[in-house]
Design goal:
Chain lengths: 372, 234
């Protein structure tokens, strides 16, 4: 299941010209406000029309201005979750959930999610007889997600579904989105301007800046190279998939293992064998030519320089291949010269901190950065 | 009716008025909603013209509206003979009175409905579309229920206007007791004959009572609908 988008439109001073392909899994549309993310969502959903373009879902043309094809919104079968829940105010939660279901009653149900499954997954069974006016922001957004899922969509669009929520509500809903991504079998296009959300959720990232795609590709590579746009260059960092190897309550430390090697981090309180996705910010990686001695940092990974690319005025992003997993380090260009770094050079990467989400279910990160 | 001291003729005028107003209102509902929706939601060339046409009866002297109806639909009018072939005759019939009342009440009805449709959040309508609702389904399941208080107000205004319509009706279908003599026509006739003041006053009071009842019912219904939309059951 892939969605291919190639659209352009001009509205006053704003010009949008965007082309990308989203594979299965969760694709994040990342960019600052005003970059055109929501417009792209509206175009995919059929709520807006481009001046020119094609949108295809799994080979089926939803829109093709060349041939005049434009499938109306209600026949696109694309579940959409907006920034605000946009529930039907005159219906109860149960009726809201059943609304899309009713229109989809003759459609095949790829995900096989029943009413009770969705209600259980989202934890909204106690809300069923209430009306939207009495729901909190987080509750409303969960109902909106459930309503979209129950309409048997071929694709789920989520337009900053957490933007209107406070941190606690976000922490409540992020794991739900992870579960959808991993379990529902419906591809998701997720709009966000928060690096933490994108790093936690996305398999693929499409970066938008002023109506154009400036980078697109696997989340891991985009984040490592800091391709999130000039504004977020400082947030570059590698994503590492690791497994909890040992948990030592006595010392308060957890040992993680991955292809890059081992990292010891403050206690994660996770069962041995749990998979975790951690992020190593490039600014928290120090490069050393020899194995360091007399350092407080405990985590040293050995590898080879893969590439060196200048960023900003005086910095450089050095990618280090550690046995197949790639870290990035943000150094000054002066340091690169002093160390005489070049691709192929063996180096040691000293990791000062990792970021992960202590509330996540072991697959993500979002809120915490820990010094290690 | 004896308690009210009404004569059979007066009673006939009241029943006829109620029937004319009810038919005029009910028959206007669907076209009124359609025009209100088009004016609220669509942008097209000629929109201002449609808006103007709808509002015309509000600003024209009622006699003019009645005369235009006579020219168009009268027995020897522009479309009258053609319609008559299909058995549709308006002139000097109570149906003509209903048509005149519908035309006169139409701007009031459309105005209230249009305002309430404009107040419906289009983003909610869009959400319904993404859930698979076709435009007509969106209208019936989202727009109409949310606009219902205003739709009701529009209908009641049109009904009240129909109960009071005089100029266009008397010009178009005259003042025939039992056929086209509605309450206002009956009151007018009574004021023209010696000794009719008592009966005229009776009918006037009944007219006031009927209009007030209609307004009260609409107010109650609108309040109940508003409660259902806004508040949360404990």
């Amino acid at each position: 299941m892939t969605i291919a988008v190639d659209v352009s439109l001009v509205r006053g001073a704003f010009a949008l010209d965007v082309a990308f392909t989203a594979p299965a899994g969760l694709t994040a549309l990342f960019g600052r406000s005003g970059s055109g993310k929501t417009t792209v969502i509206d175009l995919i959903a059929g709520l807006a029309r481009p001046d020119r373009g094609r949108i295809a879902l799994d080979g089926e043309l939803l829109l093709d201005t060349a041939s005049g094809r434009d499938l109306p919104t209600h026949r696109r079968r694309i579940g959409t979750v907006f920034q605000q829940a946009r529930l039907l105010p005159h219906l109860t939660v149960r009726q809201n959930l059943g609304y899309g279901r009713w229109f989809a009653r003759h459609r095949p149900d790829a995900a096989g999610l029943g009413f009770d499954d969705v209600v259980g997954l989202l934890g909204i069974d106690h809300l069923l007889d209430r009306r939207p006016a009495g729901l909190s922001g987080g509750e409303g957004q969960r109902v909106a997600i459930g309503r979209a899922l129950l309409s048997r969509p071929r694709l789920l669009l989520m337009d900053e579904p957490l933007a209107a929520l406070d941190a606690a509500r976000k922490a409540e809903i992020l794991p739900l989105i992870e579960r959808l991504r991993d379990g529902a079998g419906i591809p998701i296009v997720y709009v966000s301007h928060a690096v933490s959300e994108v790093a936690r959720l996305a398999g693929t990232i499409v970066v938008l800046e002023a109506g154009r795609v400036t980078a697109a590709g696997p989340a891991e590579a985009i984040l490592r190279r800091g391709d999130l746009g000039a504004y977020h260059a400082a947030e570059a960092g590698a994503l590492l998939e690791m497994v909890v190897e040992a948990d030592e309550p006595v010392s308060g430390l957890t040992r993680l293992a991955g292809v890059a090697g081992r990292l010891v981090v403050p206690n994660l309180a996770r069962a041995v064998g749990t998979a975790v996705r951690i992020r190593v910010p490039a600014r928290d990686v120090i490069v050393s030519l020899g194995h360091p001695v007399g350092l407080s940092a405990r985590n040293v990974l050995s590898g080879r320089v893969l590439s060196i690319s200048p960023t900003g005025e005086s910095a450089a992003l050095v990618e280090i291949d550690c046995n197949g997993a790639v870290l990035s380090a943000r150094l000054t260009r002066a340091s690169v010269t002093t160390l005489a770094l070049a691709p192929g050079h063996p180096v040691f990467a000293i990791v000062k901190s990792v970021a992960f989400d202590p509330e996540g279910v072991g697959t993500g990160w979002a809120s915490g950065v820990m010094e290690i | 009716m004896d308690a009210l001291g009404l004569t059979p003729d007066e009673w006939t005028a009241i029943v006829l008025s109620l029937r004319v107003a009810a038919v005029a209102t009910l028959a206007s509902l669907v076209p009124g909603l359609a025009v209100a929706w088009v004016l609220a939601r669509k942008r097209f060339p000629g929109r201002a013209l449609l808006d103007g046409l709808v509002h015309l009866p509000l600003i024209l002297p009622p006699v003019v509206t009645g005369y235009v109806l006579l020219l168009a639909l009268g027995r020897r009018g522009l479309f009258g003979p053609t319609l008559a072939q299909f058995g549709i005759v308006f002139s000097f019939r109570w149906t003509g009175a209903a048509l005149a009342c519908a035309v006169m009440g139409f701007p009031l009805m459309v105005r209230a409905m249009r305002l309430s449709i404009e107040a419906v959040d289009r983003r909610v309508e869009q959400a319904a579309a993404t859930l698979g609702a076709a435009p007509l389904a969106v209208f019936l399941t989202v727009t109409l229920p949310l606009a219902l208080p205003g739709v009701l107000v529009g209908a009641v205004l049109a009904f009240a206007k129909a109960m009071g319509e005089f100029g266009a009706t008397i010009t178009f279908v005259s003042n025939i007791p039992g056929e086209t003599q509605t309450l206002p026509s009956a009151i007018y006739t009574l004021t023209q004959v010696p000794g009719g003041e008592g009966a005229a006053l009776r009918l006037t009071l009944i007219s006031v009572a009927l209009s007030m009842t209609a307004l009260l019912i609409s107010e109650l219904l609108a309040r109940r609908l508003g409660r259902r939309l806004g508040a949360e059951a404990p």
